[in-house]
Write the structure tokens for this entry.
Amino acid sequence: MRLVLLGPPGAGKGTQAKKTVDALRLTHVSTGDMFRRTVADGGEQGKRIQAIIGSGRLVPDEETAAVVDSFLTKQSLWDSFLLDGFPRTVPQADALDRMLEKRGKRLDAVVAIDLSEQKVLARLGGRKSCPSCGNVYHDVSAPPRHTGLCDRDGVALVTREDDQPEKILERLRVYESQTRPLLDYYTRSGVLRRIDGDADSDQVTARILALFQK
Ligand code: AMP
């Protein structure tokens, strides 16, 4: 199955992607994670990407599409993937269609997680993550066992630079202007499935999986 997960920042895409790929036996492909790895590797490209991510803006479309194309090709994933965080713009969606067409494939579904702006702000406000393993926590809805420390490796949790209040507003603005148009794009191509993301994490996962039960 070839799936895309869409939703505003804070809708729980990353968490839902991890749970969905386990249940459906797909590979999770997150452009955000890829770019964070590039930043961690350092170098000129890492510094440039860090500045873009830190500002809440998007990495250029062509560069992002090339990273995804090369990753899916290298890992032989053209038949089984869940894309999380890509596409994020109409030109990226066009690029993905072209990549798939070239291989005689198409998307099976695009799952959009709906969440109001008010809920998004509340969720992103308390988000913390482990700078070492990337595990994500939330002050209210998913606190770690020991305050401020990662359950997996005990490393001190941090607020991602792009989760600072003014960056959150910029990411929401970018979502509204660049990513929301994808809902119409995929409605037109007949693959869009929408689910209500305003529930606890397990309920949202169950809603996603219910879309694929025969
Ligand atoms: P995420 O973890 O998906 O929220 O991504 C974190 C950041 O990585 C985003 O705010 C962007 O700066 C960058 N990024 C991730 N995916 C994309 C994409 N498809 N296009 C452009 N930039 C992206």
